[in-house]
Amino acid sequence: MKKLLFTVIASLFLSMSMAQTNKRALNHSDYDGWKNIKSHTISNNGDWLSYEINPQKGNGYLYLYQHSKAKLDSFPRGYDAQFSEDSKNIIFKIKAQFDTIRQAKLKKVKSKDLPKDSLATFNLSSHKLEKYANLKSYKTAVDNDEWMAFLLETKEVAQDTTKNAPKAKKKKKKSGKDKPEVGDLILKNLLTNETISFSNVSDYTIARNGQAVSFITQSQDSLSEAKVLILNFEDKKSNLVFQNLGLAKKLSITSNGDQLAFIFSADTTNQKEYNLQYFDTKLKQSKMILDSENTDFAQGWCVNKNSELNFSRDGKNLYFGIAPKDEKEKKDTLLDTEKYKLDVWSWKDPLLQSEQKVNLKKELERTYLAVYNTKKKTINQLADKSLPQIKLYNHGNAGLALGSSSLPYQMEESWNDWFKDYYLVNTKTGQSELVLTKKNAKVEISPSQKFLYWYETADSTWNAYNIANKKARQLSADIPFNFYSETHDTPSDPRPYGIVGWTEGDKYILIQDRYDIWKIDPKGKEKATNLTEGLGRKENIRFSYVKLDKEEQTIDLNQTLFLKAFGEFNKKSGFYQLTNGTSLKQIRFEDVSYSDPIKAKKADRLVWKRSTFVDYPNLWISDSSFKNEKQVSDANPQQKNILWGNVELVDWINGDGEKLQGMFYKPENFDPNKKYPMLVYFYERVSDRLHKHYVPQPNWSIINPTYCVSNDYLIFMPDITYPKVGHPGESAYSSIVTGTLAMMDRFDFIDKQNIALQGQSWGGYQIGHLVTKTNLYKCAMSGAPVSNMTSAYGGIRWESGRSRMFQYEHTQSRIGGTLWEKPLDYIENSPIFSIPKIKTPLLIMHNDHDGAVPWYQGIEFFVAMRRLQKPCWMLSYNNEAHNLKGRANRMDLSIRMMQFFDHYLKGEAAPAWMVDGIPAIKKGKFDGYELKE
After folding, report:
1. DSSP secondary-structure letter at 927?
2. Left, alpha or beta for 810 (phi > 0: left; psi -120 to 50: alpha)?
3. Which sign does the torsion angle of CA 626, 632, 635, 640 carry?
4. Using H for helix, E for strand and C for coil, what is the string for 872-904?
């Protein structure tokens, strides 16, 4: 018997060993087929789940799972799915074949002529699938989608464009500059399959209750005629509500389909003036309620062509945009060579020229909100040039809106925090009242419109302003815990943890501290209550509210609330339930990462994701108690054949005496008797990502941990804290180097002679600083580093056009003062001044269209290293941003980065690009990947 038992155990170990040896390491060619899940949604009755699984390159699938029958179906290339409100149908798009589009692009087919999507409807009972080719768009009603509407391209011969690449087409006659594109509108009954069609449709919209649809047709004659029609699905008759020569657009319909609005111009010139048209079912045709000669606004102001029209949910208000009339274009009589081209930078400009140019299109198209009261037939302007921003509440039904303006503080934002003035705006009269000035916090109006509320950074308290008596009071001052971020470590005001929401009638406001959720009476009559019973602070668990009903506006404490829980130090994740605002119960709390669940609208069924470093975040379903849970998806079954890895949480004491945490990754086939090279990656605090699953993919700027551990690298990811303002480099050293030394002392299997650094952006800067202070690391890869804070301080963040001063004085760069106030701190933290000390071979990536860190920062670093003949390479991807977007570039970076590390840390031969470089004359012809012995 003992012999038999020994034999069984030996066989078991042998089979496990063989399974292990059958696994292989990841390589870069694996990326294309590795898949991701996206766009999961659940039907209202909770029985159906849809989700996409897409490879990184190629055709994906839309999956359809039926819970009651445990049945799985799929649709090739399906995406963007939604279930009908009655859970009887699913509607989705079908992409053209990946190879078909690729071949068309190789043939230089214009984007507008590429194969188009198809629309698909699938009946969940009969399993009948119907497809419609050449889709332009589709729309469904929110509350009752018995009928849907979709627009197809007008084709002489219809074909399923998801199958074959288009053949060469005859050239179409060019339409006029302002003539809109039109198509064929199809109205389809999802229950009966009845269809109604209309041609030459340029715009359409369907009522929220699904009872009516409205659309615009534009004739394709030289003088285009616009028609606006409305169709009621009850009698299926289309009624003409407007007809005229000209251009109609921006169609909007009320929730119940009894009112319409659109803008119209009869002008035939390029510069058109529009009027605002309104229709309700009591009228035989639409009426003009606003034209360019109106007297409701300042002279020269009128409805704007860029205006969006929106009815309030109750249909009592029509919101639209106005703006000053466009200046008439003067006839251009000069040649291009006869014109000067100039930007004038003035010290009085509120915004830098660079920022003005980034925002130019937005400013040229800016409109200012106005409202038409459909009952009183009155028009009021809500926004103007001094009060440009208006936020509406309760779907536009509310009587008060919140106005805000940052205009008085725009110049200051170049070097300071942002600030705004806040106004209460009456949507019925247009009157505004200044309530709060120069606040650097988000201000909101409570759901019942009894209070304004905000976080006051000056005294670190939550505040409420009683709109009725115009008195403000502190809400959190008497609570003995902080409501601001306790781990904040930049020279700026810390931000709060946030608001959970309000209860009905604005009776209570729910606010988060670092761990717990508090119920506070905004009038101050009742003492604040800790809804989570102090458990969060006691157990170091961060609680947050999960909003399962997306339409919810207030929180009902008499119902069971769903709370997400995260262990701040053990990194566990899960859910608790709060019943009647008094009883807290743990539902799930594990060593995994959970996503926020999605709930079926009319059933007790949840769908959620769960992941670890090893386990992909697949989809699971359960009820709200997490009973009868079931895994639904399996995105990457091929993972079972790949060597992966494991991660553990580590801690150490940094140079400032603070206990820090980090993550330590080891290969799956780890051998404690073997020496492994180690990569150290960092940014700021990263340990909360302990259970993050890293899909093998070509990364945009950093290492892929999964690829690295699969290829026998250890990885250490330390948290970094910055206790000393003005000395971020020293703080980075205190955290990263002490952490590295602690790991070296703790783990004998680390090859102490072969450790490297990798980081991007702020991480890239910290690498630049570290290699001037220590020779501990064999090599380093630094992405988009700031090498010279003295020059970067006066630079521009080109993506936004903003000055970089604010980030040194107040945010991430953490100097805490100007260049002339703290010149020595800028020099101390600038690697460029210590280049002679560097003995670490360096690979830099800095791209020529970097909009965050100026490209010249990488160049300064590289040319200094080159001047001193220190080993250094710089990868500069053309027309690429701060982080790589192009997949080919991401793949290239992944290959070169790992070749760099493999050479220095594993002793592999250097690739040709490292040995010989790539001369400009060989660019695009020679990649230099081959290894040179």
Report:
1. -
2. alpha
3. positive
4. EEEECCCCCCCCCCCHHHHHHHHHHHHHHHHHH
> Distance between CA atoms of 67 and 288, rounded to whole angstroms?
53
Cα–Cα distance between 33 and 60 in angstroms, integer?
Answer: 10
Residue with tokens 């359960």: 622
Predicted TM-score (pTM) of this structure: 0.92
Distance separating alpha carbons of residues 633 and 49, to the nearest angstrom: 10
At 768, list the tokens.
Answer: 């630049």
Helices and strands counted in the chain (H then E): 14, 57
Measured distance CA(537)–CA(557) in Å, rounded = 21
Contacts of 847 (CB under 8 A, 6+ apart): 784, 855, 876, 877, 878, 880, 881, 882, 884
pLDDT (tens digit per residue) in 660-680: 999 999 999 999 999 999 999
Q: Which helix (H) or strand (E) holds 65?
A: strand 61-66
Q: Residues 452-492: pLDDT tens digits?
A: 999 999 899 999 999 999 999 999 999 999 999 999 999 99
Question: What are 517's strand-pairing partners?
Answer: 512
Cβ(715)–Cβ(681) under 8 Å?
Answer: yes
Please spell the DSSP secondary structure of 646-695, one letter per residue. Answer: EEEEEEEE-TTS-EEEEEEEEETT--TTS-EEEEEE-SS--GGGTT----
- Bridge partners (DSSP) of residue 761 are none
322 and 368 in contact (C-beta within 8 Å)?
A: yes
Q: Specify the 3-state DSSP secondary structure of 461.
A: strand
Which stretches of 771-841 are assigned E, i.e. beta strand? 779-783, 796-797, 802-803
Exposure of 575 by Cβ count < 10 A (0-12 exposed, 13-18 middle, 19+ buried)? buried
Q: What is the DSSP letter of 137?
A: E
Kind and range of the H or E run holding 906 = helix 887-906
The count of other CB atoms within 10 Å of the CB of residue 810 is 19
What SS3 state is found at 199?
A: strand
| DSSP output for 309-368 | PEE-TTSSEEEEEEEEPPPPPPP--S-GGGS-------TT-SS-HHHHHHTHHHHHT--E
Task: Sort strands 598-599 and 606-611 into parallel, antiparallel or unpaired.
Answer: antiparallel
SS (H, E, C) 173-197: CCCCCCCCCCEEEEEEECCCCCEEE
